Amino acid sequence: AWPRVDIDANPYKASFPLFSEHPGIAFLDSAATAQRPACVLDAQKRFYETMNANPLRGLYSLSIEATEAISSVRRQIAALIGAVDEKGAPRANEVVFTRNTSESLNLVARSFAPTVLEPGDEVAITIMEHHSNLIPWQQACRAAGATLVYLRPTKTGELTDEEIAAKIGPKTKIVAATQVSNVLGVRVPVEKLARAVHAQGGYMVVDAAQSVPHMPVDVRELGADFLAFSAHKALGPMGVGVLWGKLELLEAADPFLTGGEMIDSVTESGAVWAPVPEKFEAGTQDAAGIYATGVALDYLANQVGYEAIRSREAALVHYAMSRLVELPWIDILGSIYWDRHHGVISFNVRGIHPHDVASILDMHNVCIRAGHHCAQPLLAWLECENLACCRASLAFYNDRADVDAFIDGLQSVWSTFHA
Ligand code: PMP
């Protein structure tokens, strides 16, 4: 049974200024970046208008206010992702602000990995990883003399217990995996991977870029040691990323960016790092962006709410899949079951290059993504022609009309090539 949500009605669109600027646009590329509601745009402006000062540097009240704005978002994020102590208090100092998921994952691979990796060790990742959870591990393995091992799902994106048992063993020090694939839309069993690597005394790194926008994420339930996501995919501004990590692991790691704001003291010959998280936050932060990220996550998790997001997105994906499978010239990547897709449907139009598909859809005011989606090893492994595919991604602010425009657009793509 699929969620009975009225996808003809759209109580959300009016809160997103871009949709009034572009009436009739069908924006089906939220996996690349989400649209932002007015409250987030207002927050960014409000920061500069009412509390702008360089945080941390000043002892005057405006600067203290800016610092407090950042601290309060740290607490909010820790609480949101279940990074709390035994009494339920958020472990705010475990939240590091970066520029994006890529930087967060690079930080783990560059700063933490060298503290545990030795020659001959293994790092395991899935073949479904975005390049930003793949190249940093190639580099970390190269630097440490370790081996990168790929967990390969079935062609529909399921990681079997056999595959997990075969690839995670005594040599595995780190497993890094996305919680939701940005190509197949499938949910990866991160909890199982975490149990398997912890049984070997290793560590679990979770790329939550595609999960935080769609579902509640709890680092305790996942068994994560590190978790990364980007504000811009979760209704927040571009340029703000989050890395959560267990305090003792962050404390043991050296910073990979150095400079202002991240030290306790500096002499001619060396420096003493500031405590975590400042140790990892060299230079001036995007304070307005971080402040607006707090507003975005509050809107997402509390005002719209994950339950409403989940059921509405499920209804949209269900409808989109039911229309797509009616088109015999569409090949879906991964599962054809709608409930395996978390906001993301990748596909090809038989015999037509994905770039042509996206360009023709654009003429119909439909935005989808075409290309390798920063997952070339996955597309190679799936034997995707041209190492490319089309991807439509849905968010709760989409509606049935968006999906209908998409399907009509696809009919037009087909007839353009088969007139
Ligand atoms: N991981 C996944 C699963 C993603 O989908 C993306 C963005 N497409 C990233 C990482 C990288 O995010 P960012 O570009 O914000 O660093």
Q: Could you walk me through the main structural features you see in this protein, from its secondary elements to its overall organization?
A:
By secondary structure, the protein is an alpha/beta fold. The chain has two domains: 13-33 and 305-417, Aspartate Aminotransferase, domain 1; 42-295, Type I PLP-dependent aspartate aminotransferase-like (Major domain) (Aspartate Aminotransferase, domain 2, 3-Layer(aba) Sandwich). The protein is built from 13 helices and 15 strands. It has a seven-stranded mixed sheet, sandwiched between helices. A four-stranded antiparallel sheet has the order 11-12-15-14, covered by helices on one side. Helix 3 packs parallel to helix 10 (287-324), helix 4 (101-116) runs parallel beside helix 5 and helix 11 crosses helix 13 (400-417). The protein binds 4'-deoxy-4'-aminopyridoxal-5'-phosphate. 4'-deoxy-4'-aminopyridoxal-5'-phosphate binds next to helix 4.
Summarize the structure.
With 419 residues, this protein is of the alpha/beta class. Helices cover 39% and strands 15% of the residues.
Q: Low-confidence parts lasting 5 or more residues at pLDDT below 50?
A: none
Q: Approximately how much beta-strand content do the residues carry?
A: 15-25%
CATH C-level class of the largest domain: Alpha Beta
Biggest sheet details = 7 strands, mixed
Helical fraction equals: 25-40%
Assign the structural class, choosing from mainly alpha, mainly beta, alpha/beta, alpha+beta, or little secondary structure: alpha/beta
Q: What small molecules accompany the polymer chains?
A: 4'-deoxy-4'-aminopyridoxal-5'-phosphate
The outline comes out as globular
Helix tally equals 13
Give helix and strand order, one letter per element, not per position: HEHHEHEHEHEHEHEEHEEHEEHEEHEH
* Separation of the first and last Cα atoms: 39 Å
Mean of the pLDDT scores? 96
In spatial order, strands of the major sheet run 2-8-7-6-5-3-4
Question: How many structural units, i.e. domains?
Answer: 2
Number of strands: 15
Report the C-alpha radius of gyration, rounded: 22 Å
Looking at how many chains there are and whether they match, the oligomeric state comes to: single chain
* Reported CATH architecture of the largest domain: 3-Layer(aba) Sandwich
The CATH fourth-level homologous superfamily of the largest domain: Type I PLP-dependent aspartate aminotransferase-like (Major domain)
| CATH-defined fold name of the largest domain | Aspartate Aminotransferase, domain 2
EC number: 2.8.1.7
Family: Belongs to the class-V pyridoxal-phosphate-dependent aminotransferase family. Csd subfamily.
Keywords: Pyridoxal phosphate, Transferase
Cofactor: pyridoxal 5'-phosphate
